[in-house]
Amino acid sequence: RREPLALINLKKKNEETGEEELASRLDHCKAKATRHIFLIRHSQYNLDGRADKDRTLTPLGREQAELTGHRLASLGLKFDQIIHSSMTRATETTEIISKHLPGVKKTSTDLLREGAPIEPDPPVSHWKPEAVQYYEDGARIEAAFRNFIHRADAKQEEDSYEIFVCHANVIRYIVCRALQFPPEGWLRLSLNNGSITHLVIRPNGRVALRTLGDTGFMPPDKITRT
């Protein structure tokens, strides 16, 4: 889903029609619509939980999700879908948000689960996962980026608005990759719980960042970054 020319097998080009046929086939592969990607970080959760199922949202986290859902609904956009991480805190955040967006289809995926995307540069002292974690998580999170962050399909006629509920590390890495920034700098970005990050992908493949980690819709006493 990248440059249209990359989607055409030039060896099969009809020699009789030449450039005219190529132009026609290129036009058939070109995206026409803009994709709006809303990346939502899950709300505050129980940090003491040993297993994922125990890391449920706190009462404040549930309030944050309500505020995020209300904010998304207030935008007046026709959201096409909600794709969320299969981890408990992201699933619970999605359930609360979706109450404010009735009728929007929800889909769970393991690709968006939290993890260690790539070793940060410069390194930090407070977070040093085992090296194997980068190999286990990095390929999956990169796969999530390639699978979800791309220009619209050529068959898509209207602009789309999609919500992805996942995790800070995943969102930070996706933002760096989407903007063609060095992905090793992902840990320099900071995201509040329940925050909204808005990426725009134009038909020509250019990506713009409209908002990063917005929580201006929350009262100050409801904002956390755990």
TrEMBL record:
| Cross-referenced SUPFAM superfamilies | Phosphoglycerate mutase-like
Q: Which GO terms describe its cellular component?
A: mitochondrial outer membrane
Q: Entry's InterPro entries? A: His_Pase_superF_clade-1, His_PPase_superfam, Mito_Ser/Thr_phosphatase
Its catalytic activity? O-phospho-L-threonyl-[protein] + H2O = L-threonyl-[protein] + phosphate; O-phospho-L-seryl-[protein] + H2O = L-seryl-[protein] + phosphate
For this UniProt record, give its keywords in alphabetical order, as a comma-separated list: Hydrolase, Membrane, Mitochondrion, Mitochondrion outer membrane, Necrosis
Q: EC number(s) in its UniProt entry?
A: 3.1.3.16
Q: Name one GO molecular function term.
A: protein serine/threonine phosphatase activity
Family, as annotated: Belongs to the phosphoglycerate mutase family. BPG-dependent PGAM subfamily.
User: What name does UniProt use for this protein?
Assistant: Serine/threonine-protein phosphatase PGAM5, mitochondrial
The organism of origin for this protein: Eulacestoma nigropectus
